[in-house]
Amino acid sequence: MPIISNVTCPVCGSLCDDIEILVENNKVVKVKNACGLGESKFLNYNGHRLRKPLIRKNGELVEASIKEAIRRSAEILADAAYPILYGWSNTSCEAIRVGLELAEEIGGVIDNTSTVCHGPSVLSIQDVGYSTCTLGQIRHRADLVIYWGSNPWSAHPRHIERYTAFTQGRFQASIWYRYLAHLSAYRARRRLLRALKLSSVREAPTIEAEAGLPPTLFRKERKMIVVDVRRTRTADIADYFLQVEPNKDYEVLEALRALIRDEEIDMDTVAGVPVETLEELADVMIGCKFGVLFFGVGLTMSMGKLRNIDTAICMVRDLNRYTKFIIMPMRGHFNVTGSNVVSTWQTGYPYAVDFSHGYPRYNPGETSVVDILARGESDASLIVASDPVAHFPKAAVENLVRNPVIVIDPEPTPTTLMADVVFPSSFVGIETEGTAYRMDHVPLPLKKIVEPPSGCLSDMEILQRILAEVRKIKRETAEVA
Amino acid sequence: MKVTLLTGRTLRQGQGKEYGKLSERYLKSVAVCEMDPDDMKRLGIRENENVKIATNYGSVVVKAVKSLRAPHPSAVFVPYGPWISLVMSSKTHGTGMPSLKGVTAEVNPAPTEPVLSLPELLKRHFKKE
Lengths: 481, 129
Ligand code: SF4
Prior knowledge:
The complex is a heterodimer.
Chain A: E1 3-7, E2 19-24, E3 27-32, H1 36-44, E4 54-57, E5 60-63, H2 66-79, E6 84-87, H3 93-106, E7 109-112, H4 119-128, H5 135-141, E8 144-148, H6 152-155, H7 159-163, H8 176-198, E9 223-228, H9 233-237, E10 240-243, H10 249-260, E11 269-270, E12 273-274, H11 275-287, E13 290-295, H12 297-300, H13 306-319, E14 324-329, H14 336-347, E15 353-354, E16 361-362, H15 369-375, E17 381-384, H16 388-391, H17 394-402, E18 405-409, H18 414-417, E19 421-424, E20 434-437, E21 443-446, H19 459-480
Parallel strand pairs in A: 6-7, 6-17, 8-9, 8-13, 9-10, 13-14, 17-18, 18-19
Antiparallel strand pairs in A: 1-2, 2-3, 4-5, 4-19, 7-15, 11-12, 15-16, 20-21
Chain B: E1 2-8, H1 11-18, H2 24-30, E2 32-35, H3 37-43, E3 50-55, E4 58-66, E5 75-79, H4 82-85, E6 103-109, H5 118-125
Parallel strand pairs in B: 1-5, 2-4
Antiparallel strand pairs in B: 1-6, 3-4, 3-6
Helix pairs in contact in B: 1-2
Bound molecules: iron/sulfur cluster.
The site of iron/sulfur cluster (SF4) has 13 residues of chain A, from α1.
């Protein structure tokens, strides 16, 4: 039985490339090294997929031939005055490149999912720049790891184990044993509390009773801090969890900046956090040898958006006067970084690129899909490997489905249910090879481990055929005219 | 009751998604509202009873579940998905990104209203000619 090793997991931006897969009769039967998310994708991807192209006729989606579906899509796109091409973070760089060519050909707007997750991070990186490095550096050297507004336990389950606190680096030891001690203490405390609550003791002490930072934070070894608006799973395993009030990250970041620069703060608390705690935290940050701040959509999606990232980057810049500190966004989908990178090589801009003038134009807030949809300006759309119907606000979805929607996706989703043309594609990284970029901008190869079902083309092939057909239609109309 | 609505990813939502977005498992993993047990008591809701989340932009019915991450009084958490998207604003304040975290909302018991399945939800809210 063939075991395929060094497979890259096509699920989240950590892109773990050490997965081992056992294949029997063209089926994945066993997965090793992957986390819960990765494993359920490898084992279940085939259970619920699209197999035939669909076209909407008289209000119903009916099966069609691939040729018919290509022709229909090409007609829709060639006819449209202001089409949008959206998705791209769950496909290969090769497919994205064809998508950009298509966008230019039809004068559309091409945008990727970073517009609704780390778009603000990109904007502020363009504004103030940032200091960063690869995950390998962090694994071997970082002695202070901060996750801010990000919950890797749930969204990037192996990030901590592979790249940060629980990994055995060359110069930094793993701290998982501390986590175990921490966890059993936490459990014991919970049990005690529950017992106290049940017994007649009226005022049970609360868990949050301890003040100040725990002593482990002042040790030389690796340490991990989580900052978030709620106590996440990741927070449970950290050495210290700092809870800030919702929408107040900006205040906390600015306060920390002031403290790092040795300025006084004339208040007792900031966003619910005592200033003394922040002072200690600033000391820990200054005192580390190599710190890293990972930030998630908790910062980009709450009030302040890109301004939160601006200050986070500026704080890291301030810290670099005393020590080495870097900052990195926790990118979600496996190739969302790739969609930014490919778009930047080809057009000069990372997302929200508008070709309607014949040359690329970029103005997020105007040329970003949610805004275009909210204003009701687009008249057709092509969605690749993404599900805007499930994730966009209602008003945007209403305008999306009012016009023709073409979807390329291996799986049925709310968006395919509302589509006019649906192409079943093969799974990139399982049935098709390609390239994807990890969150630290390291490109990794995606493998083909099984054959796709017959009739399922790759995203890239489908896009190439639509592009060829659009060009043909254009030639035909030019000849008639 | 007035609450701050937080949204995000969960491990169960990520796994549910891999079982297919039209699966029961996906519905169970995202059409939920994680609440502080004390808030639930205050509203008189028990685990798995229906609640209605309403904002200025819309409303939706989901199941209330006890948060394992309490205490977080008057903050509720709902995983990303088609249900919660119905109450989000499409304003992006010039950034391209709608605000999905820290939205002010109203949560109330809705014993008589059902949690819509995905096809029903799409039919009810979006028209396709
Ligand atoms: S952490 Fe991400 S890339 Fe790694 S195995 Fe899990 S889902 Fe896959």
